[in-house]
Write a structure and sequence with these properties.
9 helices; about 220 residues; about 0% strand
């Protein structure tokens, strides 16, 4: 059976796996973005705190994804839980790092001017600093998403959702007539999803970033 025939015969299952894969990555990215930006906001004013935040989140990436998921399984069980925890943890570094860089890069004269007209620290953060830091933060989100697309496939090891199940089924049945098709279908599906997500981020950037500060 050739690849396209296999895809045609299995399109419903492949679409279901693709939806679960995209949904898992999207939801984990939302959580990672909220946590990452919060860490950036809390640490960017201090050199020591910023370095600690960056070092701590970068250390997570040194742990192989399969090993981390394997360590989580005895604690939280199989399925969605280890997938969500591992994806959120792996997604933090680019967001934290870019949030810190973006917030530190805001022109100090603009912040001083806002302070001079009586804006509170929270108002300055929400109305001036975060909007101006948004371009690098969005770049961090894009990088994290591309990373998590691939890492999410490993979640199938712990019965997680997504296209990784197709890949693992193919690997487990090497030598069968559809083994290569299964691996290829899962891999191509992940690449297509990554491209679609990146295209969506480009559109979000054009809609939310003023032309004068686009990078």
């Amino acid at each position: 059976m050739n690849f396209w025939t296999y895809v045609g015969n299995r399109h419903e299952q492949l679409l279901s796996d693709a939806y679960q894969h995209a949904s898992a990555v999207f939801q984990c990215m939302v959580v990672a973005t909220v946590i990452g930006v919060l860490i950036g906001v809390l640490s960017y004013r201090s050199e020591w705190a910023g370095n600690l935040a960056t070092t701590a989140t970068s250390t997570i990436l040194t742990v192989p994804s399969l090993a981390l998921i394997g360590l989580l399984v005895p604690i939280v069980g199989l399925g969605v839980a280890p997938t969500v925890i591992s994806l959120v943890l792996y997604g933090l570094l680019p967001i934290v790092r870019n949030a810190i860089v973006g917030l530190r890069g805001v022109d100090a004269t603009l912040v001083d001017a806002a302070k001079g007209i009586g804006m509170s620290r929270t108002s300055r953060l929400l109305r001036i600093e975060l909007p101006l830091a948004w371009p690098p933060i969005l770049t961090g989100i894009r990088v994290s998403t591309q990373m998590l697309m691939g890492i999410a496939a490993i979640a199938a090891f712990a019965s997680g959702p997504g296209l990784g199940n197709e890949i693992f089924r193919g690997i487990a049945s090497l030598g069968s007539k559809n083994a290569l098709n299964q691996v290829l279908a899962g891999t191509v599906g992940i690449v297509v999803l990554a491209l679609l997500f990146d295209f969506a981020y480009v559109l979000i950037g054009r809609l939310t970033i003023p032309r004068g500060i686009r990078v």
